[in-house]
């Protein structure tokens, strides 16, 4: 395996300093009707999140503009509304009838001044990690459609499944409680831990705080039985108890969930339209863990005017599996396109799902120290690592291109990596207070 010496010195990596960046956008730009004040030392692309149909927006203009009218307070969060798709996606079928507002959209885009990029290459970040706190990340975009469907079907509880530190399961547990639905999680863990209390680390803490019901299954059982059969077993049990369960698949990745990132493409288009200086993205880079995000991004980019080439870095399974899985999602929407024609998938799983090499964790640490951008170790961290490695190995393929990297969240997953990260971080010491400094009891108040 090739090794790289990442140079993240402050001199070569100054992410939000306009003076040091060759960035064409010198201010934050919103719509002409609603200009917003400049924010020094930040470059962010924002827009109102309006539908192509003026009276049918999924999020009202007042609620989502950067500077809402204080005279007209709105309460759009956690409301369900009729959904109107982008005009370029109106032929897809089925089209969701409703969507819930569960997040804070649009998420910002800003330039990411990574060092040692190929000649003329620019990288931007789409901050889906900032879509909320408890509901941050890419999963919430899918849940906006999936939970609207669950409510429409009269569900009183939600079932979903994932790894022991699943971001999707945490987001589902929180969103379900927002909507007064119980949540049942099937979490995959090691066979030595399957009979033990799973603890309160990272996503588990949030899930258990909001009262999610957790069933543990070993990785070996999961591999033999499969996620569909496992959720079916729990669904049958709950039906026998008189409940009305609604099953959401791994990662929320089915054809309905795919609409979350079709809608994200519309959001990106609208953000670019509101930018003073023209910005066109040649490439979109994103992590792939269950397939729904890449299916939505790729078909949306293909159908819309965005026309960016989508690169996915899979963090589990292999590219062949995800080409086939994404194809199933596209066929479920009658998209009429081959997944292989609209997305390029590369392997970035390294040691395996949710497992990291020291080199990968060092990369995450250095990115955070240099830029303040914290990548999660399971998804975006591996995808960014793979992107930078690919650029180093094949610089000609990236020269002069403008790249949008989708940060899909997952911050809580870092708390499960504290032991591995401990040797990589330092910067602490006991403060040296010279004996000549006056001391008097009670001088310092401890609040």
The largest β sheet comes out as: 7 strands, mixed
- Percent helix, as a range, is 25-40%
pLDDT < 50 runs, ≥5 residues: 1-68
Q: How many β-strand stretches?
A: 13
- How many DSSP H or I helices? 13
- How are the strands of the biggest sheet laid out side by side? 1-4-5-13-10-11-12
Shape category = globular
Beta-strand content estimate = 5-15%
Overall pLDDT score: 86
Spatial separation of the terminal alpha carbons: 52 Å
- Succession of helices and strands: EHEEEEHEHEHEHHEHEHEHHEHHEH
Structural class determined from secondary elements: alpha/beta
CATH class of the largest domain: Alpha Beta
C-alpha Rg, in Å?
23 Å
Summarize the structure.
Pfam families: PALP. This protein has 447 residues and is of the alpha/beta class.
Structure description:
With 447 residues, the chain is of the alpha/beta class. It has two domains: 18-136 and 255-424, Rossmann fold; 156-243, 3-Layer(aba) Sandwich (Rossmann fold). Helix content is 30%, strand content 14%. The chain is built from 13 helices and 13 strands. It has helices at 61-64, 139-152, 167-178, 203-209, 219-225, 227-240, 259-273, 292-303, 319-332, 339-342, 358-371, 380-393, 418-421; strands at 44-45, 80-82, 98-100, 109-111, 122-127, 157-163, 182-189, 213-218, 245-247, 283-288, 309-314, 343-347, 402-407. The strands form three sheets. The chain has a seven-stranded mixed beta sheet with strand order 1-4-5-13-10-11-12. Strand 7, helix 4 (203-209) and strand 8 (213-218) form a beta-alpha-beta unit. Helix 2 crosses helix 7, helix 3 runs parallel beside helix 4 (203-209) and helix 7 (259-273) packs across helix 8. The longest helix is centred in the middle third of the chain and has 15 residues, at 259-273. It is globular. The relative contact order is 0.13. It is an enzyme of class 4 (lyase). InterPro entries: ACCD_DCysDesulf (IPR027278), D-Cys_desShydrase (IPR005966), TrpB-like_PALP (IPR001926), TrpB-like_PALP_sf (IPR036052). It catalyses: D-cysteine + H2O = hydrogen sulfide + pyruvate + NH4(+) + H(+). This is D-cysteine desulfhydrase. Belongs to the ACC deaminase/D-cysteine desulfhydrase family.
């Amino acid at each position: 395996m090739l090794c790289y010496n990442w140079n993240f010195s402050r001199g070569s990596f100054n992410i939000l300093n306009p003076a040091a960046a060759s960035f064409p956008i010198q201010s934050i730009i919103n719509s002409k009707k609603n200009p917003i004040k400049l924010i020094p030392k930040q470059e962010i692309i924002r827009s109102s999140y309006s539908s192509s149909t003026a009276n049918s927006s999924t999020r009202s203009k007042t609620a989502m503009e950067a500077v809402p009218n204080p005279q007209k307070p709105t309460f759009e969060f956690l409301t369900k509304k009729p959904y109107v798709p982008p005009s370029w996606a109106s032929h897809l079928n089925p089209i969701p009838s409703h969507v819930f507002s569960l997040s804070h959209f649009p998420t910002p885009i800003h330039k990411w001044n990574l060092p040692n990029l190929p000649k003329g290459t620019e990288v931007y970040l789409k901050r889906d990690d900032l879509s909320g706190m408890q509901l941050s990340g890419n999963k919430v975009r899918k849940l906006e459609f999936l939970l609207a469907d669950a409510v429409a079907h009269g569900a009183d509880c939600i079932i979903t499944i994932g790894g022991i530190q699943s971001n999707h399961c945490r987001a589902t547990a929180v969103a379900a409680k927002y909507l007064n639905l119980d949540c049942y999680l099937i979490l995959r863990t090691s066979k030595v831990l399957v009979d033990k209390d799973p603890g309160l680390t990272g996503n588990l803490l949030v899930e258990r705080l909001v009262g999610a019901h957790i069933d543990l299954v070993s990785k070996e059982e999961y591999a033999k039985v499969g996620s569909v059969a496992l959720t079916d077993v729990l669904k049958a049990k709950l039906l026998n108890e008189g409940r009305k369960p609604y099953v959401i698949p791994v990662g929320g990745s089915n054809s309905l969930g795919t609409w979350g990132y079709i809608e994200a493409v519309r959001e990106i288009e609208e953000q670019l339209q509101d930018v003073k200086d023209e910005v066109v993205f040649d490439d979109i880079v994103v992590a792939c863990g269950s397939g729904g995000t890449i299916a939505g991004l790729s078909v949306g980019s293909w159908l819309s005017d965005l026309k960016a080439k989508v690169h996915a870095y899979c963090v589990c399974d292999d590219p062949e599996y995800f080409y086939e899985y994404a194809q199933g999602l596209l066929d479920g929407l009658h998209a009429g396109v081959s997944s292989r024609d609209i997305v390029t998938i590369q392997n970035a799983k390294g040691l395996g799902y949710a497992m990291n090499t020291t080199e990968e964790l060092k990369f995450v640490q250095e990115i955070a120290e240099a830029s303040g951008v914290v990548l999660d170790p399971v998804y975006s961290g591996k995808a960014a690592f793979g992107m930078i490695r690919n650029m180093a190995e094949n610089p000609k393929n990236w020269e002069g291109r403008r790249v949008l990297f989708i940060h899909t969240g997952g911050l809580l997953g870092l708390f499960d990596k504290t032991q591995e990260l401990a040797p990589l971080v330092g910067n602490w010491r006991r403060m040296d207070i010279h004996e000549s400094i006056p001391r008097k009891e009670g001088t310092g108040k401890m609040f």
